[in-house]
């Protein structure tokens, strides 16, 4: 059972070439091996993992169990610490809002986060502010990363939660998660990490046992949309004291009730397994593409929006002097698919809150382009990109 990638056709059915996809930070193409796995558990092994009276349900249950193991292995967690969700956004919400009752009960209502988090973190934090929690958002350094010292300095006895993303979704800047975890060594605040852009790519970064809550999405690593996980690490024998946001059914230890989407979970599990097995070769290929692209863009005066020494190899955020980002996207649309920021806030005409927080001037923010790639990116049409940007800058 093989799922072939769809091909574009024009109105009369003639095949037409597609632009090179450079928006992996928004979503990734589903790995064909994963698509086969999803289709198998959608069309053939379609049983309900909660059905215990027949082989269909047992097969589904066993695949879900294996997927927990596959996800857990990537972050050195225990399989029963993996809770399946619809994606990182739900996992972030469950982490943050799910701690509210514990915070109110214990009198710990101070939360530390950053100004450069994804909206999936910032908006639940805003909701907790409405409920009386004190949320402290730390600014980044000019290079786009948050200082571990600023986190340590902000800690208080009543700090309930520290929430810092692993890799910024707009700039690709890797946050100093290990150092932040060390700063919390003697504090009992929970550490939540939005790991959507790091899971399956930066293995050691996410295996630190001090990371209590990890939010991941399948569609960022060649898996299907609509599935993700929340890793809830124990401290000793104690799980994070999360309360559910939904009720009914008791699945996922009552934290995320509802019939498990076995096909999607199978896809997430396989995509996690493949990411771990192929991490080195994927990283090497990403670095090659990044170096080639940078070498071509720098002569145009490209300004890197993010410390290049701290940026993941699969994402580049640059501003080209004299080239408006929206105009560049239009000029390049038949050649490459790229963006000027987060897909989750693409309807907003407000400037990027991430680049504003980093202190970049408005004109540089207006020129910011985000390019991101992955395992299926065989090559980038670098010369054509540079030629069009160069002509756009002179016009």
Q: Secondary-structure map with pairings?
A:
Blueprint: E1 20-21, H1 32-44, H2 55-74, E2 82-85, H3 88-97, H4 100-106, E3 110-114, H5 119-130, E4 134-138, H6 148-154, E5 159-163, H7 177-183, E6 190-194, E7 213-217, E8 228-232, H8 262-277, H9 279-297, E9 303-304, E10 315-319, H10 325-332, E11 336-337, H11 353-357, H12 362-366, E12 368-372, H13 382-394
Parallel strand pairs: 1-11, 3-4, 3-5, 5-6, 6-7
Antiparallel strand pairs: 2-8, 7-8, 9-10, 10-12
Helix pairs in contact: 1-8, 2-8, 3-5, 6-7, 10-13
Explain what you see.
By secondary structure, the protein is an alpha/beta fold. It has 2 domains: 20-30 and 279-394, Alpha-Beta Complex (Aspartate Aminotransferase, domain 1); 33-276, 3-Layer(aba) Sandwich (Aspartate Aminotransferase, domain 2), CATH 3.40.640. The chain contains 13 helices and 12 strands. Strands 2-8-7-6-5-3-4 form a 7-stranded mixed sheet, with helices on both faces. Strand 5, helix 7 (177-183) and strand 6 (190-194) form a beta-alpha-beta unit. The longest helix has 20 residues, at 55-74.
Number of helices: 13
How many angstroms does the end-to-end distance come to?
Answer: 51 Å
Poorly predicted regions are: 3-14
The total of beta strands comes to 12
Report the major sheet. 7 strands, mixed
Order of helices and strands: EHHEHHEHEHEHEEEHHEEHEHHEH
The residue-averaged pLDDT reads: 93
Which percent range fits the helix content?
25-40%
Placed side by side, the strands forming the largest sheet appear as 2-8-7-6-5-3-4
**CATH topology annotation of the largest domain:** Aspartate Aminotransferase, domain 2
| Percentage of residues in DSSP E strands | 5-15%
Structural class: alpha/beta
Number of domains: 2
CATH class of the largest domain: Alpha Beta
């Amino acid at each position: 059972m093989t799922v072939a990638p769809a091909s574009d056709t024009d109105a009369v059915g003639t095949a037409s070439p597609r632009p090179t996809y450079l928006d992996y930070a928004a979503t990734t193409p589903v790995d064909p091996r994963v698509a086969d796995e999803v289709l198998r558990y959608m069309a053939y092994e379609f049983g309900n993992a909660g059905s215990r009276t027949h082989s269909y349900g047992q097969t589904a249950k066993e695949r879900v169990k294996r997927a927990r193991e596959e996800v857990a292995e990537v972050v050195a967690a225990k399989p029963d610490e993996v809770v399946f969700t619809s994606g990182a956004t739900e996992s972030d919400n469950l982490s943050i809002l799910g701690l509210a009752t514990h915070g109110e009960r214990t009198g710990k209502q101070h939360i530390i986060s950053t100004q450069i988090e994804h909206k999936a973190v910032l908006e639940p934090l805003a909701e907790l502010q409405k409920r009386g929690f004190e949320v402290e958002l730390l600014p980044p350094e000019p290079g786009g990363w948050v200082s571990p010292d600023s986190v340590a300095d902000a800690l208080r006895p009543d700090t309930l939660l520290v929430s810092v993303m692993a890799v910024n979704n707009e700039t690709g800047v890797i946050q100093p998660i290990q150092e932040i975890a060390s700063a919390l060594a003697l504090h009992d605040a929970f550490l939540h990490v939005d790991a959507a852009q790091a899971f399956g790519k930066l293995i050691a970064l996410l295996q630190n046992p001090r990371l209590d809550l990890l939010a991941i999405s399948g569609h960022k690593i060649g898996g299907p949309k609509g599935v993700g996980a929340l890793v809830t690490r124990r401290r000793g024998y104690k799980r994070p004291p999360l309360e559910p946001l939904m009720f009914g059914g008791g699945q996922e230890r009552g934290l995320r009730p509802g019939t498990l989407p076995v096909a999607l979970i199978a896809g997430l599990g396989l995509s996690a397994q493949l990411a771990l097995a192929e991490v080195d070769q994927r990283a090497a290929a990403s670095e090659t593409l990044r170096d080639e692209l940078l070498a071509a863009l720098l002569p145009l005066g490209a300004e890197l929006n993010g410390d290049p020494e701290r940026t993941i190899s699969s994402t580049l955020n640059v501003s080209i002097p004299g080239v408006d980002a929206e105009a560049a996207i239009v000029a390049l649309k038949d050649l490459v698919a790229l963006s000027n920021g987060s897909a989750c806030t693409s309807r907003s005409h407000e400037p990027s809150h991430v680049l504003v927080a980093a202190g970049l001037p408005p004109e540089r923010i207006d020129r910011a382009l985000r390019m991101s790639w992955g395992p299926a990116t065989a090559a980038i049409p670098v010369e054509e990109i540079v030629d069009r940007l160069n002509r756009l800058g002179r016009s």
